[in-house]
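URGENT: need a sanity check before tomorrow's submission.

F., can you look over the GNAT family N-acetyltransferase record below? I want to be sure the sequence and structure line up before it goes out.
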Amino acid sequence: MQVVVRKVKLPQDYPYIAEVLNTCLPEPITAQDLELDDSKIPSQGHLYRDENKLLAGFDRYVIVAVNAADIPIAYGISWRAPWTAHGELNHRLVVDPRYRHMGIGQEVYRHLEQWAHSIGASKLNYEIRDEDNSALQFATQLGFKINRHVFESVLDLSTFKLEEYLPGISKVEETGVVITSLDKLDGEIALKEQALYELYRDTSYDIPGFSGEYFDQQEWKKWTLDLPGSSPNYLFVAIENNQWVGVAHVLYKGATSSFYHEFTGVRSSHRGRGIAQALKIKSIEAALEKQPQYMRTNNDSMNTPMLKINRDYLGFRAVPGLYVLAKNI
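Structure tokens as predicted:
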């Protein structure tokens, strides 16, 4: 099949890109979602070499493969953010299943790697669904190797027995820890966001698979508090002696009447006391007010404590997740 690989034309390509991406995403995405994400990213990138001559800065290269009618049937993006580990690029490549095994993916990838070479990247990261054997074979043939496994889990909220878990909150609160939602906390918004940012930053470094630098506060806000479905009443913090020691944040997904558990973090000095479990129960309690069908989350395979909370304690069940692959170039 004759195809042409070209740069994206926006906004007209958004609906077709969303259609392609929805063939592999666990939750549907819309053209409006894509446009909103793009609006958060500067249109002009800035790449440079650090003191070790590794690629740094930010930029992206976005392409599609189109058919004879100029309709995108495959999507590819190579990008790095300011907080991406130096030298590295992140890739995503999706071909509409109806057009696979025709060489389209190889052609899109050729353009992506060519751009990576042209800007001096030294490592490429790539994510694929772990049940997609065809995509795994494609990636390994290109020289990618599995680096990590990100497990996805789903909790059926229609049958969740909240009353069985509420004592877990009381047990933690009896030790002097206050667990409350962001909207119920007094104080200036700027000060609360500053405290929350520092809590996210300090607990994120301990997450298995985390690399690079952390967001600055402005970028962090774009990709946490300003995410679709985020709300102050769906963000819970644990406070002890006026110190913010833990956080849990869930996002409402109106299209599927569900929630996504975006983040849980507890300071290392306060772990092992049941605070993470209590925060998760609080977030589930708030979510249940919407009468959702389920809650979804992701955990790195090396994050054993969080996997134990989600699956053994709360009853999340395993569903297909992601392989994170890498390739040195």
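My own read: Residues 104-119 form the longest helix (16 residues). The chain has a mean pLDDT of 95. If you see anything odd, call me.
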